[in-house]
Each structure stands twice: as C-alpha cells, then as structure tokens.
Amino acid sequence: MLAGMSAMVVFDPCRGGGENIEEMLAVLQTVSTGEITRAVRDSRIDGLDIRQGHFIGLVDGKVLATGPTLTGVAEEVALLLVREDSEVLTILVGDGDDNREAGEAAAAIATRYSGRLQVDIHEGGQPLYPLLLSVE
C-alpha cells in the first residue's frame, strides 16, 4: 500500500501516460516496505518460530522479525528497512486493539531516526496491521 502511495505522489497529470508510468516504476524501485501484524497461530516461517499472539514483522513481503512486543518488532523492522541512502521514513498507524502501542512504537522509531531522515507519521486506520512502514 505504501509503495503505491509513493508512486502516486510522482504522478503528474501534465505528463503523458508513458512518462508517468516510467516515473512511477522508477520510484517503486527505491521503496522498501515493512508491515507488522499479529500471529493468529503458532508456526515456523523461514526459520523463525512464531508464537500465536506475538507480532510478526515483514520486510518487502518476507517475514524477518517476530516477538512479543509491537515496539520491539517495529524497531527491528525499521532497522532492516533503513539504508545509508534512505531519505524518508513513512509510518502509518493502524486502527484496532494495538493502536495505543502502535502510536508509541511509531514515536520511538521517529525519535531514533529523526536526525537522519524525514519521518512522517500518519493515522492510516488500516485493520490487522498496527503499523505499516516505508522507506525511500
């Protein structure tokens, strides 16, 4: 979702369709995304033991982090996303039972990276994913 938003930002109605497509595809190559959600059952994915109720962190669609706290998993996902050449970190806070903790996690991440990146936090209202992150 956040990668698509990044592509939408470069759309220019004054340009032709082909040029817009090129620009949008170019932006997509520079965006990495992270998602945090809760595990609904015990499982094992890519060598990670995931416990029901724990948080799962995905980076570009691959499960790379898990743990009992939203903040811990979110910080790990952010660490995996942010590169030396990153400029903007966008965080969408979801809607649901974890909303308060998601807001706290977003603030902790913003504090960690604010001197290095432009950090934007928005209320996304998305269900099932307390946090969505993107880095450009």
Which terms summarize this structure?
136 residues; alpha+beta; Hypothetical Protein Tm841, Chain: A,domain 3; 2 domains; six-stranded mixed beta sheet; two-stranded antiparallel ribbon; 4 helices; 8 strands; 35% helix; 30% strand; globular
Question: How would you describe what is shown here?
Answer:
With 136 residues, the protein is α+β, with helices and mostly antiparallel strands. It has 2 domains: 1-30, no CATH class; 31-135, Hypothetical Protein Tm841, Chain: A,domain 3 (2-Layer Sandwich), CATH 3.30.1180.10. Helix content is 35%, strand content 30%. The chain has 4 helices and 8 strands; from the N terminus they run ααβββββαβαββ. It has a 6-stranded mixed beta sheet, with helices on one face. The longest helix has 15 residues, at 99-113. The radius of gyration is 16 Å and the shape is globular.
